[in-house]
Specification:
The protein has helices at 8-21, 33-43, 60-66, and strands spanning 2-3, 24-29, 49-54. It contains 3 helices and 3 strands. The chain is an alpha/beta fold and 70 residues long. A 3-stranded parallel β-sheet has the order 1-2-3, with helices on both faces.
């Protein structure tokens, strides 16, 4: 789980973990999925799986609404 996920550092880390470990990556960021789609497509080929949730980590209600309970 990487917070601030679709920003520069998040993309670099996701690529690294994907390339080195074929990791299952979960990114969490405040921007909408439409706003980060290009960055996600850059990372996706390196990962076993990639999921993005749009939520503010400082706002519990936002996290609760964005991330499925199951």
């Amino acid at each position: 789980l990487l917070t601030g996920g679709a920003g520069g550092i998040g993309v670099i880390l996701a690529k690294h973990f994907g390339q080195k470990y074929r990791a299952h990556i979960v990114l969490l960021g405040r921007r909408s999925l439409d706003d980060v789609a290009k960055s996600l497509e850059e990372v996706r080929p390196f990962c076993s799986s990639l999921v993005y949730y749009a939520a503010d980590v400082c706002d519990y209600a936002s996290l609760e609404a964005a991330i499925p309970a199951d």
